[in-house]
Every structure is written in structure tokens, then in C-alpha cells.
Amino acid sequence: MSDESKPPSHADAWHALRRLTPARIALGRAGTSLPTSAQLDFQYAHAQARDAVHLPFEREALRQGLAERGRACLDLHSSAPDRHTYLQRPDLGRRLDASSVALLAEHKGDYDVALVVADGLSSLAVHRHSLPMLQRIEEMAAAEGWTLAPVCLVEQGRVAVADEVAELLGARMVVILIGERPGLSSPDSLGLYFTWAPKVGLNDASRNCISNIRLEGLSYAMATHKLQYLMREAARRQLSGVNLKDEAQVPVLDSGARPGNFLLE
User: Fold this and answer.
1) How far apart are alpha carbons 102 and 97 in whole angstroms?
2) Which residue has the higher pLDDT, 106 or 28?
3) Nearest residue to 178 (alpha-carbon basis) of 136, 224, 212
4) Which of 241, 229, 144, 143 shows the shortest CA–CA distance to 197?
5) Nearest-10 crossing angle of helices 98-105, 161-169
């Protein structure tokens, strides 16, 4: 096909709006199809998302970072023996294997908070964001006077595995940091789930979720601020999940403005 007969590439009239969002809008067209550059960008983002799911959980860097702050950690594994099984059997990712159960029995105590880190569906998110988030959570817990259990690193873990970890450790509250399902514009999104009185068998209605923790999403400071509110209210009201709403006041830069949640006013 000669250059003259090739369909021209047309820019979209809304192209300027792309500066405001990472969503795939105003991509333009070449005939009835996407321009080559947009198609290649989509394929690259899809490859990044797949890589994030299959990236091995590298715990050594996390252990080293925690050790530098004087924090002990425990290496645990879910009942899913490998990544292939983990992706096909979500139920196995929600429970610990026998050796992990035995290890936690040796560390049972009387803790206010158990902190869990699991690879989930994006080890990339955990590698990038878990250490700075853990530091802020630990500082917040110290300010509140809450005792912390050793940090538990769970390979091939799902959200619910944190309930078993905390129950075996004897913790009243549990926070799990876990890699969220990658999106085409967010392969490194970290999720945070909080549960009061954790035990095996709880469902998602018993947990509170703070999602999209990453540099382009929810900041570490804001995520910690929301978590602090939830944990304070959970300790006061003895509950979490759907009965505990996030009504935390949002900090603002302008000190003259009254902070708050405009949806509740």
C-alpha cells in the first residue's frame, strides 16, 4: 500500500484532557483502528501488569529494611505451594501451611496489632511501597501506645490469611499490606486491609480496605491518616468492616479552611 493510500492518523479533539488522567481516553484513530503508538502503549501496559502478577516475592530486601529499624519479622507461606496453584486456588492462599502455623505458635503473645505483608497479585507493589508504609504505621502505633507483633511476610498470600496470622499470634487488630490486582495504568498498587478481632472464617464484610496506595494514587501519609482513624474507632467501638465507616477528616494545606469530609456535611 502506498503512502497516499494509507489511512491517515487523526488526533482526538479531547486530546488535551489526557493531561488530567492516566485513563486511556482521546487516543485518536487511524481509519477505524487505534494509532500504532496507542496500540503499542496498550501492549506494553498489559505486559507490565502480567509481569507484576508473576514477579517472585523477594523477601530479603524487606527483611533487611526491617532489621535496620530493629524490627523482627517471620517468614510464612500460605497453603498454596506455588504461583500456578495460587492463581487457580484462591482458597489455599487464605490459609497458612503447617510449618507457618507451628512457627506462629512459638511467638504467641498479647499484642494490640499484627502487621502482615503478602505478595498478593502484585509483588511489585509490595517491593516498592511496603517498607515506607510499614514505617509510618509503626510510628503511628507507637504514638498511640499500641504493642506490635513481629512483622509477618507471607508468600502466596491472600487478604484473609492475615486473620489466621493474627489469631495465632494473639493480636486484637491486624493490618495487611498486599499487592492489588494490576491495572493497565497501575501495576504497582498496594492495598491495605484492617480487621478488628481477627479470626479464621471472617469474610470481607468484617474488614476495612484502603486501596491504591502508590505515588500516583493515595499517598503514604493519607493512607496512614485514614488507618489511624479506623483503628482508633475500632478500638473504641469494638468492631470493623461495613459497620465502621471512614469518616476521617481530611487534612488540607490552607489552615484557614475547615477540614472535613464534604460528603458528610
Assistant:
1) 9
2) 106
3) 212
4) 241
5) 30
On whether residue 164 sits in a domain, the answer given is: yes
As a whole number of angstroms, the distance between CA 17 and CA 110 comes to 53
3-state SS string for the chain: CCHHHCCCEECCCCHHHHHHCCCCCCCCEECCECCHHHHHHHHHHHHHHHHHHHCCCCHHHHHHHHHHCCCCEEEEEECCCCHHHHHHCHHHHCCECHHHHHHHHCCCCCEEEEEEEECCCCHHHHHHHHHHHHHHHHHHHHHHCCCECCEEEEECCCCCHHHHHHHHHCEEEEEEEEECCCECCECCCEEEEEEECCCCCCCHHHEEEEEEECCCCECHHHHHHHHHHHHHHHHHHCCCCCCCCCCCCCCCCCCCCCCCCHHHC
Give the integer Cα–Cα distance in Å for 168 and 174.
Answer: 11
In a domain? residue 36: no
**CB-based contacts of 69, cutoff 8 Å, min separation 6:** 135, 138
Can you give the CATH number for the domain in which 96 is found?
A: 3.40.50.11240
Residue 148 counted as domain residue: yes
Residue carrying C-alpha cell 502484585: 122
Distance CA 152, CA 5 (A): 62
Mean pLDDT of 5-13: 60
pLDDT tens-digit map of 223-237? 999 999 999 999 999
What per-residue confidence (pLDDT) applies to 261? 52
Looking at residue 14, its pLDDT comes to: 75
Residue 78 belongs to some domain of the structure: yes
Q: What is the pLDDT of residue 107?
A: 96
The whole domain housing 115 covers 54-237
